[in-house]
Structures are given as C-alpha cells and as structure tokens.
Amino acid sequence: MPIELLGVVKSFSTFPTICIEQFRIADGERIALVGKSGSGKSTLLNLIAGIVTPTSGSVSVDGIDIGKLSEAKRDQFRAANIGYVFQTFNLIQGLTALENVLLAMGFAGKHKSPETRAKELLSRVGLENKLRHKPRELSVGEQQRVAIARAVANEPKILLADEPTANLDEQNTDIVLNLLNELSSSEPRILILVTHERDVAARLPRSIDLKSINKI
Predict the structure, then answer these.
(1) What 3-state DSSP class applies to 162?
(2) CB-based burial of residue 39 (10 Å sphere; 0-12 exposed, 13-18 middle, 19+ buried)?
(3) Which among 8, 15, 44 has a CA at the least distance from the CA of 209?
(4) How many CA atoms lie within 13 A of 137 on its CB side?
(5) For a tag site, which of 19, 87, 171, 214 has the least CB within 10 Å?
C-alpha cells in the first residue's frame, strides 16, 4: 500500500506549514521522519491519515486520493487501513485497556472475535494482567503500549507513530521502539515514526529529515 504526495501544500489560515513537491513511501518501508518541533511533522502524518486534507495537491494511499473522499469515507478508510499512535496516547479515560482496544476495532468490524484478538494484542505488549485497568491506573509506558495495541488491532497496512517515545524514560523507549519494529516487520506494513531525537531515528532502517522534502 504505497503512499505518494504530489504538489502538496497545507496552509492554516494563510500560513503554509507543508509544501512538498513529491514524496513517496514504498509498501512495507519503515522510516523515521525527523525534524524540530513545529516543523510540520505531525501535519504530514495527519495528511497521510486523512485527518486533515491538503490545501492543494494530492495525498494518495494505494492509488486512492484520500483528499477527494468525503469525511465519512476518509474515516472508514482510516479505520480499515491506518493505525495511529498519538504522542498523548488519546486513550478514553473512562474505559479499560481492553475496552479502548475494542472500541477501535468496532469502527472497522474486521474480526469475528474482537475480544480474543484484543486480549492477544494486550498480552503481546506485556499487559495481560492489566486488561481491566483504566488509563489513570497505568504508567505512562503502559498507556503507550495500550495505544500501540489499539493502533494495530485492525491489522492496518500503515502504522503512524507521532513522537511515541517523547514522554518515556530510556527503558520504556526501548520497549516501545522494539514493539513498533516487531509489529511492523512481523506483519509487513509501512511504519512512519515521527521524532526529533536522532538516536531514536537511528533505530529504523531509513531516516528522512523533513527539511529535505518540505520546501517551506
């Protein structure tokens, strides 16, 4: 499921944040996208996810120009094909770890036994004993692992991770990076990991500095 951006400009009000002539990611690639805070890294992820649409140009995923889809169709496309690990986790505080993963799975409706898969994934990220815990009862590193389990629950072809280690200590950084690499290579999928840390970027096969492709 390759990704291609052509002539993409994204402006907020009248201020352009992204201006990319051409950028392509091949199916199965694992890359780190590096740049300073405010350089447009999160905006680029949101364009690929269809959370925002370009002011001009096209963002194509597997040949589909997602900017031309209706909002409802983009939501469906994202639920079926894209997993997103947010920097702030975006877990629903009133739900347990298991319920957070199950909720994400409900949008895609891919699995006949969603609870079985959700439990398997939470076990895989080392949280088999925390299924009924709510986010406030989990450590920061554990919350991030719930977010990763949720992101891969629908077997997405594309996994996006926005500064997934920014709030973690060294031990949890290692755990999260190992998980992301393992989960994206064992079931081949594109992984795009945004970071401002060069040592984190070095853990992925390919690293791209945003300023090399963004003409702002």
Answers:
(1) strand
(2) buried
(3) 44
(4) 11
(5) 171
Q: Which two tokens stand for residue 54?
A: 């370009």
How far is 142 from 99, CA to CA, in rounded Å? 15
What residues have CB less than 8 Å from 192, skipping those under 6 apart? 25, 31, 33, 45, 48, 158, 159, 160, 161
Residues 168-183 pLDDT 10s: 999 999 999 999 999 8
Two tokens, residue 74? 């983009």
Instruction: State the residue for tokens 């291609």.
Output: 4
Tell me the per-residue pLDDT of 186-213, one tens digit each, with 9 for 90 and over.
888 999 999 999 999 999 999 999 999 9
Residues constituting the chain: 216
Q: Three-state SS across 108-142?
A: HCCCCCHHHHHHHHHHHCCCCCCCCCCHHHCCHHH
**How are beta strands 30-34 and 56-61 bridged, if at all?**
unpaired
Cα–Cα distance measured from residue 139 to residue 106, given in angstroms and rounded to the nearest whole number: 26
Question: Can you read off the two tokens belonging to residue 9?
Answer: 């400009």
Looking up tokens 């439990």, which residue turns up? 119
